[in-house]
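Work Package 4 report. The design task specified in the project plan requires that, given a folded chain encoded as structure tokens, an amino acid be chosen for each position. We show below one input record used in the internal validation round.
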């Protein structure tokens, strides 16, 4: 997560605004005092208050207090659609939806509720009584969206949403060595608790494997999966593909390969050609996996079956996503080169997620968040030289020049150079205090 800044709380019946430093919000010795302040500012206290963030961003930067379910803990959340008001280094910063794949949806597909939770319209049902899923066979890329935007979100879009809400598409230099499997699992499960599709809470359906199948976490997850309350619920299973082994993985597979399978049901494919269909739909990710890349696998499955031999489920839909060693999503091998160089130079950046965006939608491959500009600095990689791509490249360049100015964006023509040391220099980073890591 990003940097915590001072928070200001003003009450209608008190003359002075109270300031709470970043240290007061985060250090263990002040936990009781900070929770007491948040409880007082919560709407259930009966007192009217206005809470604002003290970061360097522009705008009102309004915050609200949310009570965590089944807990006495209170946290701060930003007001809906105000992420761009905050400084890029701030924990409450978020990209404008117009600069991500979110812009491809109709207005009612993703809604931020007043209490900070999110309601989405999925094109897939979360119980076995819902209509059958659409075919795994991919539809041709859309050139234009239906008027008003896409009417629902796919499984790929849901993965993009959860990854963004978990903050895993943003990299901070001081997170080096800290973003491991356990932290990713914690962040994803926490993000899923705040997302609903209809009456279904995504957090009630999402299960993420752990490395040790005999651990307490794995045992507790198996117990939950075996419970009656999940008997008619479809599951969302998240893991990483294991290290590629041609001898194992080139033969016909009956079940989905997972690296961290502790606490997970054995997930069978729904037909003999299912895995081949997945490979055709995600050729980049499959090729990267074969070459040693880290690939996230996300599956919608049937409700779990409980037998004496263990838990099993049948995959309805499967999506793959290539990520860097630091779990930043990548859309090409060239983006991987840029990402590695950004990491090596200790830069702060974000990957705008595609969601279900049309192939004709334009937004950058990355944004730098630590330049001298007071806005995110776009970065674009041009990676092909076909006539159609070159024509689209010129359209993209014209768009970026108009939107950001000729010197307001960075680009690299990867068809001319392929080594990271030959990349154009990145814009200079501004100097400010290193953001605090907030696992």
């Amino acid at each position: 997560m990003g940097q915590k800044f001072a928070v200001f709380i003003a009450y209608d019946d008190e003359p002075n605004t109270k300031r709470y430093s970043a240290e007061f919000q985060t250090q263990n010795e002040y936990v009781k005092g900070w929770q007491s302040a948040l409880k007082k500012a919560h709407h259930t206290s009966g007192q009217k208050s206005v809470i604002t963030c003290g970061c360097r961003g522009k705008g009102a930067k309004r915050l609200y207090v949310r009570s965590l379910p089944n807990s006495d803990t209170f946290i701060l959340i930003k007001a809906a659609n105000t992420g761009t008001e905050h400084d890029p280094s701030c924990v409450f910063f978020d990209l404008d939806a117009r600069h991500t794949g979110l812009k491809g949806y109709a207005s009612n597909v993703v809604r931020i509720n007043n209490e900070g939770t999110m309601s989405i319209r999925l094109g897939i049902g979360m119980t076995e009584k819902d209509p059958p899923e659409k075919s795994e066979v991919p539809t041709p890329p859309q050139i234009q969206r239906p008027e008003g935007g896409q009417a629902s979100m796919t499984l790929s879009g849901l993965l993009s949403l959860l990854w963004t809400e978990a903050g895993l598409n943003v990299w901070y230099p001081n997170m080096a060595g800290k973003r491991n499997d356990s932290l990713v699992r914690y962040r994803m499960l926490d993000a899923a608790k705040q997302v609903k599709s209809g009456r279904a809470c995504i957090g009630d359906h999402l299960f993420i494997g752990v490395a040790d199948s005999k651990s307490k976490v794995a045992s507790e997850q198996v117990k939950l999966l075996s419970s009656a309350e999940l008997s008619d619920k479809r599951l969302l299973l998240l893991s990483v593909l294991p290290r590629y082994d041609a001898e194992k993985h080139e033969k016909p597979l009956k079940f989905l390969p997972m690296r961290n399978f502790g606490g997970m049901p054995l997930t069978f494919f729904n037909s003999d050609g299912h895995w081949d269909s997945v490979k055709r739909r995600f050729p980049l990710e499959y090729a990267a996996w074969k070459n040693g890349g880290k690939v996230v696998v996300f599956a919608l499955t049937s409700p779990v079956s409980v037998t004496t031999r263990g838990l099993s489920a049948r995959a309805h839909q499967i999506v793959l996503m290539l990520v860097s060693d630091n779990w930043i999503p990548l859309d090409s091998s060239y983006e991987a080169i840029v990402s590695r160089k950004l990491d090596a130079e200790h830069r702060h950046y974000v990957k705008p997620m595609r969601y279900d965006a049309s192939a004709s939608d334009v937004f950058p491959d990355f944004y730098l968040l630590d330049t001298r500009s007071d806005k995110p600095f776009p970065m674009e990689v041009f990676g092909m030289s076909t006539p159609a791509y070159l024509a689209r490249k010129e359209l993209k360049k014209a768009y970026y020049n108009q939107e950001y100015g000729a010197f307001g964006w960075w680009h690299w023509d990867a068809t001319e150079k392929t080594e990271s040391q030959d990349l154009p220099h990145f814009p200079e980073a501004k100097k400010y205090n290193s953001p605090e890591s907030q696992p």
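Residues 137-145, 433-439 have pLDDT under 50 and may be disordered. Validation will be extended to a larger panel in the next phase.
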